[in-house]
Specification:
The chain is of the alpha+beta class and 240 residues long. Helices cover 45% and strands 19% of the residues. Strand 4 and strand 5 form a beta hairpin. Helix 4 packs across helix 5. The protein is globular, with a radius of gyration of 25 Å.
Length: 240
């Protein structure tokens, strides 16, 4: 009987610890509905805006450093041209040219099936997902895009387009739909790549059936910003 008594005592002790932790967390509030928990989303938005301001400041400082380095480097014209080409390929320089933009938007929350034979949508069917944005970005790269920005940020080789629910998290900043992806390149090839993508073809089924947003526009001249964030690798190491 002694092991049973010890086990019972341990269960009651664990339950007491859980109740104490819950009480300490709630501090007399309703932990499900208390408005104070909304402060977390406010904090996320505040940090996102702060990251944006820091990116802009970092970009301005980087331009100053590049200008000083170019003035004092003593490099030849050929070397300077090679460096400029590498910076453009890396996405740290501004890029101007013809472009195509794609805008994706959530469907109305009360949307119903617009095509006979389709089931009524679940909430998950009415929002933009990570794979939808990734499909657009991948198709544009395949179509020969020279550079891409998502919302107001330039993508580079280490950029990751991630979504939590229907919220986009990109390079330390948070965005809500509608989402706009802009690519500099030959508009006809970019459009063809979008049309040929199997993932986008699947997305278009939801556009037609439930009203998810899809808009493609051509632009004669667009200037993409240079990437201004950190280029340090946090989870990988360069090959020597």
């Amino acid at each position: 009987m002694r092991p049973v008594r010890l086990l019972t005592a341990a269960v009651f002790a664990l339950a007491g610890l859980i109740f104490f932790t819950s009480f300490n967390t709630a501090k007399g509030t309703n932990i499900r509905t208390d408005a104070s928990l909304l402060k977390l989303s406010d904090l996320i938005q505040e940090r996102s805006h702060e990251n944006g301001r820091l990116d802009e400041a970092n970009g301005a400082l980087r331009e100053d450093v590049d200008a000083l380095a170019e003035r004092d480097s003593g490099s030849s014209d050929v070397e300077a041209a090679e460096l400029d080409a590498l910076e453009k390929e890396a996405g740290t320089k501004k890029l101007k040219g013809e472009a195509v933009s794609v805008t994706l938007t959530d469907a109305p929350p009360n949307a119903t099936a617009k095509i006979p034979g389709y089931p009524e949508p679940l909430p998950n069917d009415l929002v933009i997902h990570q794979q939808d944005l990734q499909a657009v970005v991948n198709a544009l790269w395949k179509g020969g895009a020279k550079g891409i920005k998502v919302m107001d940020q330039r993508l580079i080789s280490t950029s990751a387009v991630r979504c939590v629910g229907n919220t986009l998290i990109l390079q330390g900043r948070v965005y809500s739909p509608p989402y706009k992806v802009t690519a500099v390149g030959e508009p006809e090839k970019l459009r063809q790549a979008l049309t040929a993508s199997p993932e986008i073809q699947n997305y278009m089924l939801y556009v037609n059936a439930y009203g998810l947003g899809w808009k493609v526009d051509d632009h004669r001249a667009v200037t993409l910003p240079g990437y201004s964030g950190t280029v340090d690798l946090h989870y990988a190491t360069p090959v020597k």
